[in-house]
Design goal:
Layout lengths: L22 H12 L6 E5 L6 H14 L6 E2 L2 E2 L13 H7 L6 E4 L16 H14 L6 E6 L6 H12 L5 E7 L7 H5 L2 E4 L5 H10 L8 H8 L3 H9 L2 H13 L6 H11 L5 H24 L11 H8 L3 H23 L4 H17 L1
Parallel strand pairs: 1-6, 1-7, 4-5, 5-6
Antiparallel strand pairs: 2-3
Helix pairs in contact: 4-5, 7-8, 8-9, 10-12, 11-15, 12-14, 14-15
């Protein structure tokens, strides 16, 4: 079972050996370390699933295993590090892998002790636990590292407790905050952190990251990269839930528009209503929204996306969104169907009916 800071079907960021496509962020941190400008708090930002948590764990290993540049060893100053990589056999790396490193504390959502159900927020007690961690680990005089994943999950009380720590940071402590939506954090938290911005992965880096995670995408990698927005986490989810096949089914349904293939639509809708299909159902709703967005963008720009996410997609999108007016119509449909799907899921409407109604609305937009 995955934990709140782990993508379903992917290795935990702690156990991910290599980070791909984020050289600029790694180099920025190494430069700060080498020049003695190591900030006490770092905000790692960017879309979900692109390696922010993997980078946080790599930084933690590096800081706990690497002496500061200014400290001289027996034979003079240590060489300036050029990589965050730490030998897996290093004692720090081994302790982190075993969850036994005393200088590291990871904060994430925790189970409610009363109900044993996973909370949907990081609560103030999770942050207050850091006080004991800092007191216990201060005795050896070494570094201490805290990873908060994701900082977006903190409720107001937890955020205020963390802010107090950022205002009076413990000596030789580094806090690493993983954030998918930093605009939602307190401005005072953002202002007290140095930001490392991570970007979406290229198709090449995506292929390498998927291979490392044990996902064999091969020729599907460009389509996975396109539909996932360059997020390896999203690409893993697409792969595990047959997302490309589902998107292909959507493309085949709109291929015949304005003639509506009701049989194909019913098959897709019934699949979404199957017992135990909740994850695939959620993905289907997301893919419908993504398809409408790609139609709207095609109309607005006058050209379909450069990379096809399904066979024949470019020609179909160009035909159905041949003008800016058509693009606006698709954008309006995306807004309306998105709101209806969110409402339907919130009140537990029949998923088959919800999917079918959405596809009928798409058909009506194409006819109009």
């Amino acid at each position: 079972m995955s934990t709140p800071d782990q993508i379903e079907g992917a290795p935990h960021p702690r156990d991910t050996a290599q980070l791909f496509g984020q050289d600029a962020a790694q180099e920025a941190f190494l430069d700060a370390f080498a020049t003695g400008r190591l900030h006490h708090a770092w905000l790692l930002t960017g879309p979900s699933g692109i390696g922010k948590a993997t980078l946080a764990w790599a930084i933690a290993r590096f800081l706990l295993a690497t002496p500061p540049v200014e400290e001289d060893g027996l034979f003079g100053a240590a060489p300036t590090p050029t990589s965050l990589s730490i030998d897996p056999e290093h004692p720090v790396a081994r302790r982190i892998a075993a969850g036994a490193e005393p200088g590291l504390k990871a904060i994430t959502r925790t189970p409610n002790p009363t109900t044993d159900r996973m909370r949907d927020q990081i609560v103030v007690d999770d942050i207050r636990s850091l006080a004991g961690f800092f007191q216990l680990s201060a005795a050896d005089g070494g570094r201490r590292v805290v990873i908060v994943d994701a900082a977006d999950d903190m409720n107001t009380s937890a955020a205020n407790a963390l802010l107090k720590m950022l205002e009076e940071p413990p000596e030789r402590a580094t806090l690493l905050l993983v954030s998918h939506q930093p605009s939602g954090l307190l401005p005072t938290i953002r202002s007290r952190c140095r930001t490392l911005r991570l970007g979406s992965l290229s198709a090449e880096d995506m292929a390498r990251a998927l291979a490392q995670a044990g996902v064999e995408a091969h020729t599907e990698t460009p389509a996975l990269a396109e539909l996932s927005g360059g997020s390896v986490g999203a690409a893993i989810r697409l792969s595990l839930l047959d997302g490309l096949q589902t998107y292909g089914a959507l493309i085949r349904i709109i291929q015949t528009l304005p003639q509506f293939d009701r049989a194909a639509a019913l098959k897709l809708a019934e699949g979404a209503a199957a017992r135990g299909a909740e994850a695939k159902r959620d993905l289907l709703f997301e893919l419908i929204d993504l398809l409408l967005s790609r139609l709207a963008r095609t109309g607005a720009t006058g050209a379909p996306p450069a990379v096809e996410a399904a066979a024949g997609e470019a020609e179909i999108l160009a035909r159905l969104a041949r003008s800016q007016n058509a693009g606006r119509a698709w954008a309006q449909t995306a807004q309306e169907t998105g709101a209806r799907m969110r409402h339907g899921r919130a009140v537990n409407l029949d998923p088959a009916a919800l999917v079918l109604d959405t596809l009928i609305k798409i058909s009506q937009t194409a006819t109009g």
